[in-house]
Structures are given as C-alpha cells and as structure tokens.
Amino acid sequence: MGNYNGAIIVLTIIGPNRVTEMELKKHRSCVMCVAVTGNKIFSVSYDKVFLTTAIDSSTNGSKSITYTELQLESVPRSIKAVVGLPHFL
User: Which domain holds residue 50?
Assistant: First the structure.
C-alpha cells in the first residue's frame, strides 16, 4: 500500500492471526501507483519519482533493502508488473 505521506506499507500474512508490517519511507510526496512482483516493489509518487525497491531475506531472517530511483517526465495512471518488469499505463 502507498500512502499520502510518501511511505509504502508492506504487510506480510504469517498465519491466521499474525501479520507483520514494514514501512518504507523513500518517496517525498504522495504515492500514486504501486505494483509488486516477487521481491520487488515498483512505485511512483506525485512528484514523478519512480522507485524500484528490492527486499531480500537472508537465512537468519534479516532483510536487505535496495532502492533504484528514476525521475519521470509525467506521472503514469497506473503500473503493472509483468514478468518482473514494470509497465506504465
């Protein structure tokens, strides 16, 4: 989920009564579009910043997060993840 404050909230369902939450705060304005594929999250904010966020888990349970940022000329209406790649609509 993306929110107005520029954060992406990742919810992971662990069991019938357990959910974990991780907040990724990298955008500087409202998150407009979000798409997820495998360990990658594609997102675009209102200020035309496109982020690819990769979350990798190690065997001991720790997480490694990497970001790739790109400035766009306009905000797409939506993002769709197809075969691990973002497609803007």
Answer: 7-88
- Domains contained in the chain, number: 1
Calculate ∠ Cα 50-20-80, nearest 5°. Answer: 30
pTM value > 0.85: yes
Q: Which two tokens stand for residue 71?
A: 């400035």
CA 17 to chain centre: 24
Please, which residues have CB within 8 angstroms of residue 88's CB and are 6 or more apart in sequence? 76, 78, 79
- Summarize pLDDT for 16-50 with one digit per residue, the tens: 999 989 999 999 999 999 999 989 999 999 999 99
